[in-house]
Amino acid sequence: MTESLPRNSMNGSIVLFGPPGAGKGTQATRIVDLTSKPQVSTGDMLRAALSEGSKLGIEAKSFMEAGELVPDDVIIGLISERLKMDDAKNGVLFDGFPRTIAQARELAKIAEVSAVVSIEVPDESIVRRIVGRRMDPETGEIYHIDFKPAPESIINRLIQRKDDNESTVRNRLKAYHEQTSPLAIWYENQGLLIKVDGEQTIKNVGDEIISKLSAR
Ligand code: AP5
């Protein structure tokens, strides 16, 4: 059966929110297919800048490798430019943005947010998810050595992100709890927060997201 979302879920932008490794990127694919909204991942944009060796990439490198947040003005500049593109005019799917109250305030000035999907996963599960994550550089598909093993035929080409190690993930979690998690209450007060249990199977997390978005 083809999945669909009601029209009111299609207005404005959707934010995928949660700690590092919660499954934002994993679930983004299904929501993009359903809504035709482009995925806007600040992490992916920064990694692309880093591999191109651009000024932005050089500026972001030390923060990313330390597991710290890149300064707000850099991120806000990046998003403002991205939202000027044609494909963003009916809203986008934000993945990993906003991550501070300052970013959320700036976003509110330039775009309408219709829902914030918070994928809830406790810290104990995060480290295992991050350390076991592998990416396919050809397709962008995200795998996990235990939870979503890649087909044997592509195992040799899989890569591991430089910041996917245990010590960096502890810093990323610290940054999340100190700077990002207060945003959940900020969005809850605006009636936009949808909480989803991120400790289910990948399929069931996706089903819960779709059903809660549909019920809005
Ligand atoms: P970013 O790339 O955004 O990383 P992140 O938020 O740390 O999130 P991840 O991409 O690590 O996790 P995810 O939630 O997408 O999980 P995934 O689906 O891959 O940011 C990187 C860095 O860039 C930041 O540290 C910061 O320096 C900078 N940055 C980016 N945006 C910024 C901003 N707005 N402001 C300032 N700085 C910014 O899943 C993880 C693994 O778990 C995978 O292996 C997957 O297969 C597995 N998995 C997923 N779901 C399940 C499930 N239900 N059960 C079991 N396993 C699962």
From TrEMBL:
GO terms for molecular function: AMP kinase activity; ATP binding. This is Adenylate kinase. AMP binds at T42, R47, E68, L69, V70, G96, F97, P98, R99, Q103, R161, R172. Pathway: Purine metabolism; AMP biosynthesis via salvage pathway; AMP from ADP: step 1/1. GO terms for cellular component: cytoplasm. Keywords: ATP-binding, Cytoplasm, Kinase, Nucleotide biosynthesis, Nucleotide-binding, Transferase. Pfam families: ADK. Monomer. Belongs to the adenylate kinase family. CDD domains: ADK. It is found in: Cytoplasm. It comes from uncultured Poseidoniia archaeon. It catalyses: AMP + ATP = 2 ADP. Its main location: cytoplasm. Catalyzes the reversible transfer of the terminal phosphate group between ATP and AMP. Plays an important role in cellular energy homeostasis and in adenine nucleotide metabolism. NCBIfam families: adk, PRK00279.1-3, PRK14527.1.
